[in-house]
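Quick illustration, no need to memorize.
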Amino acid sequence: MKRLLHIAVVSALLALVARGGAHAQAPLSLDPTFQTGLSTWYVAGLLPLANGKVVASGQMRYEGEFLFRALMRFEADGTLDESFYQSGLGGGRITPWRGDTFYVATSQTVRRILPTGYRDQTFIEMNTSPLFSSLQGGDYHVYPDGSIVMSGVHSLYDTARGFVGLYNLIWFTNTGHLDTTKTHRTGNGAIYEIEQQPDGKFLCSGTGTVYDGQPVRTIFRVHPDGALDTTFDSHMTWGDADAFLPLPDGRAYMVGICRREGAPDDTIRVARLMPDGSLDPTFDPELNFSLGELPNALSLGAVVGHIHPWLDGDILLTGLFQYVNGQVRRGICVLDHTGALQPEFDGCGVSTFDFQGTLTGSIQSIARTPDNMLYVYGAYHGYTDGTTNDPDQRFITRLYGPDLTTGSSSKADPMEHVMIVPNPNTGTFTLRTHAISVRTQVSVLDASGRIAHTTVLGSGLDQYELNMDLEPGPYTIVLLSEQGDRQVARLVIE
């Protein structure tokens, strides 16, 4: 998948950081009790489990070992979990599904993995189908029932239904078979990135100029069934997006390397798009990301790989960079809702290492545990939290999560703190906040940042009884009012 192919320069997948419980240790400080002992090369996906163990996907090897492993599970202290089958089925992004069962991207396709580490035999090896042959992977999305849509460039040979040739979006059932009820979509290039919005549409990015017989930009949007959404025009004529962050109001953040029509020399690495694809004029995309200290030094090699909500309406970016606007930011930085660089993570971040002539020091993403610990992962040797510099931290580092139980709710909006009672729960709970005066959209995001549920709250109440069909695990609830007021709360489904 593209995220796997881009890891050397960091492409993306980041998990949410949400409002959660406090820890005795300083927020975002190192937890030195977790160390993996990995020597090479990168971690591209991470899934913290409720029992404290951690599943990692990438290209990983211990010092002294000859073979790389694509999928591993670690104990709560970072030692190898020998009870987990260390397979070659992996390498890319991990998406949780039911319990400890999950999906993982390989270089070309997607597999469903059981809690034991073995492949789920009820989800077939898709290449065994006579109708489908994987070629170049891109991205994938998992639906609640376990069916998926996969992007990239792949071959279909279904003469009975007229699907013959190369396709960009292909749907599969929850058994891994080609979904013959869907209309699979063609193009003249590859789609590397897809991200579902709250309304079910997908933001797409790739290399093609034609999709389903119609001209498209490098960033475009499709309807839930894959048909092109002609109301969206990004005006992006070069490059592509490595990650999207859809917002409940129809806007969306994007990160990557892009240039817009009429501005061929203006490289954009982060932007916020309006619902019609145009740039949001209230967000400044003119940040310089570089690998060197000088403002423009080695800027072309710098990569912003992923984006995710942070605290107080800010956004967090990770990738391969050492400086942002000339200020030290080692693979991680925070912007406010206007695009201004924030002081968080000043002096924090990762150190570089040399592997086979490639100098790497990047953060792929951050994953959160149910008890609000944070895992930083990527390709690096050494991590500093601004106080402690630990050179033995490699590829996966555990931090103490921020304490969001005190202080004001948000500097970005006036909404009061949201309470969820009970929490944890089974999906039925009471949501309490101040009296809502306008309609407010509620989006529920899973641990990978994907939208799992949406609903709308009417005005005039301060308490709402909600019932959501969600799989067990940690979630983040985002409330966004029609006036732009935003609030975030943590939800745990038992």
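The domain at 2-400 is CATH 2.130.10.10 (Methylamine Dehydrogenase; Chain H).
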